[in-house]
Design goal:
The chain is α/β, with parallel strands linked by helices and 307 residues long. The protein contains 13 helices and 8 strands. Bound molecules: glyceraldehyde-3-phosphate. Glyceraldehyde-3-phosphate binds at residues 50, 52, 91, 210-211, 245-247, 278-281. Its EC number is 4.1.2.4.
Length: 307
């Protein structure tokens, strides 16, 4: 849609109320036993299993893809009465796309690529657009772009909208996730406004963080972004997905995020087409909890070393 500046500038965020609401969530939402196992299995299907390290190798990416294809040991799945599941996607840097596409062939698991000068997003604009094109050509079905934080910090909503529109167009058929890098946006009000602008410009998902900022996904930021998604849906009828990313490594945190989605947006947003975790180490903890549910014992972390 066209940029609606009145809507953007009218978006507010009451920080103390948001923090209070987020703080009460862990006490109010406690899921136990079989229900917990079910929520954790759902969480797995929503993970963008991620490796974004300077020392990534083809071998590491192939191992990660093997994990994405079979994220939970077969004996645990059997004990839980589940058929095979997979993660939502595998998320890598551009140079690893072809390896991941090859390793995931025939599974239907999409490859997501971080792009546009990730994580800072400060490379020349034409190069950022070209990078998207190269990643789509290499087989990425999802592109995680980073926005220019300075456009938010200076309130230049038109520049942010134009940038996001150009990224959206460069993605073609690929889905585009807009990484706001919320830890660098200064205020929750800025987070609300940037969320709206990116949705107006065509983002399929809005995502909190690159995982490289000093503050990454948090519950207060999530509440603001999720409410912006709800507002956008109420006014336009268009569903935009949500991806908290960075620092989510515990199964109990995953359940909290799912509970927040269910409370604020309902069950429709608890599926991988509208919800993802960006996480490199969450899966290992979820597997430990599932093993505990099945056997009554906690396994050592190294038994689930990858993911
Ligand atoms: O988008 C995904 C993040 O980079 C993953 O962050 P993490 O390594 O803290 O889980």
């Amino acid at each position: 849609m066209a940029l609606d500046l009145d809507w953007v500038r009218g978006a507010q965020a009451n920080t103390s109320a948001i923090e209070r609401r987020a703080a009460t969530l862990p006490g109010r939402r406690s899921v136990k036993k079989a229900f917990q196992a079910a929520w954790l299995l759902r969480a797995i299907t929503c993970i963008d299993l991620t490796t974004l390290s300077g020392d990534d190798t083809e071998g590491r990416v192939r191992r990660l893809c093997a994990k994405a294809r079979q994220p939970v040991r077969a004996d645990l799945l059997d004990a839980l009465g589940m058929d095979a599941i997979t993660t939502g996607a595998v998320c890598v840097y551009h140079d690893m796309i072809e390896t991941a596409v090859d390793a995931l062939r025939g599974t239907g698991i999409p490859v997501a690529a971080v792009s546009t000068g990730f994580p800072a997003g400060l490379s020349p604009f034409p190069l950022r657009l070209a990078e998207i094109g190269e990643s789509v050509k290499a087989g990425a079905g999802e592109i995680d772009i980073v926005i220019s934080r300075r456009h938010v910090l200076t309130g230049n909503w038109t520049a942010l909208y134009d940038e996001m529109r150009a990224f959206r167009d460069a993605c073609g058929e690929a889905h585009v996730k807009a990484i706001l890098a919320t830890g660098e946006l200064g205020t929750l009000r800025n987070v609300a406004r940037a969320s709206l602008v990116c949705m107006m410009a065509g983002a399929d998902f809005i995502k909190t963080s690159t995982g490289k900022e000093s503050v990454n996904a948090t519950l207060p930021v999530s509440l603001v972004m999720i409410r912006a998604i709800r507002d956008y849906f109420d006014r336009t009828g268009h569903r935009v997905g949500y991806k908290p990313a960075g620092g989510i490594s515990k199964a109990k945190d995953a359940v909290l995020y799912l509970a927040l989605m269910k409370d604020e947006l309902g069950d429709r947003w608890l599926r991988p087409d509208l919800f993802r975790f960006g996480a490199s180490s969450l899966l290992g903890d979820i597997e430990r909890q599932l093993e505990h549910h099945v056997t009554g014992a906690y396994s050592a972390g190294y038994r689930h070393a990858l993911g």
